[in-house]
Amino acid sequence: MSIDVPVLTIDGPGGAGKGTISGLIAERLGWHLLDSGALYRLTAQAALKHGVALDDEPALERLALSLDAAFPVEAGAPRTLLEGEDVTRVIRTEQAGERASQVASLPGVRQGLLERQRDFCQTPGLVADGRDMGTVVFPDAPVKVFLTASAEERARRRFKQLQDAGVDASLSSLLKEIQARDARDTQRSVAPLKPASDAVTLDTTRLSIPEVVDRLTQLLAQKGLASRG
After folding, report:
1. Is the Cα dihedral 91, 213, 144, 194 positive or negative?
2. Which uninterrupted H or E stretch holds 74?
3. 3-state DSSP call for residue 128?
4. 47-57: per-residue pLDDT in tens?
5. Is residue 69 predicted with pLDDT exceeding 70?
6. φ, ψ dihedrals at 201, nearest 5°
7. Are 21 and 9 in contact (CB under 8 A)?
8. Are 146 and 196 in contact (CB under 8 A)?
9. Taking 60 as the threshold, does the pLDDT of residue 62 lie above it?
10. In Å, what is the CA distance from 50 to each residue of 64, 188, 211?
């Protein structure tokens, strides 16, 4: 697909900081934001809202194609809207995740969401956060970034996030889960997790959030897509 609107794709494994960084850059530039990881959860939530069975592939594909989703960023924090309703917390429950996994297994839904993701490419620009944004969804994006961090650091970040939310967790268990997911994501046959051939890889293990945001903003400025301010 050809792209007339500037697009920054930010891919990488869970815990590398994609969501936070993507939201901050979108807010700084005044660009749109796409949280691709939320779309299957949103499709499942839309199905629940409209009484569509989670095995009705044709109906789910239609929902995916016309999904009314938005990801506004306020004070550095992205929100998730479905048909204008804030569902940021609703779609992050374990039950919502199970429903998302069910709809994600349907090829029609995957195709519908591929097309829907590309609809987010609107002026003045788009920051697309995910795992295959630069390789599959926006292969012609002018700037592609692959954020990574050590598994130990990503586990530590997730552990702190859960602690701050008052949730009990085991650091060693989180590390094992992250390592297992990395193995699944990098070895899967469809859209495996890997940097695009023309992506800039940035290890965030020892970088602060402001440092990462500044580096990516500078990268965009070098391409003439953002000011250096």
Report:
1. negative
2. strand 73-74
3. strand
4. 999 999 999 99
5. yes
6. -95, 130
7. no
8. yes
9. yes
10. 13, 32, 43
| Chain-centre distance for alpha carbon 108 | 20
DSSP 206: T
pTM listed for this prediction: 0.90
Which helix (H) or strand (E) covers residue 203, if one does?
strand 200-203
Whether residue 66 contacts residue 119, with contact meaning beta carbons closer than 8 Å, is answered with no
Strands 126-130 and 7-11: what pairing?
parallel
Grouping H, G, I as helix, E, B as strand and the rest as coil, residue 76 is: coil
Mode of pairing for the β-strands spanning 143-148 and 200-203 = parallel
- What does the block give as tokens for 83? 């048909």
CA–centroid distance for 69 within its chain: 13
d(CA 171, CA 168): 10
Encoded amino acid at 40, one letter: Y
Kindly list the strands in the beta sheet with 85-86, ordered across the sheet, starting from the edge strand earlier in the chain.
69-70, 81-82, 85-86
Q: What is the pLDDT of residues 180-214, one digit of tens each?
A: 988 888 887 777 889 999 999 999 999 999 999 99
Structure token pair of residue 8: 């920054």
Retrieve residue 207's tokens: 């970088």
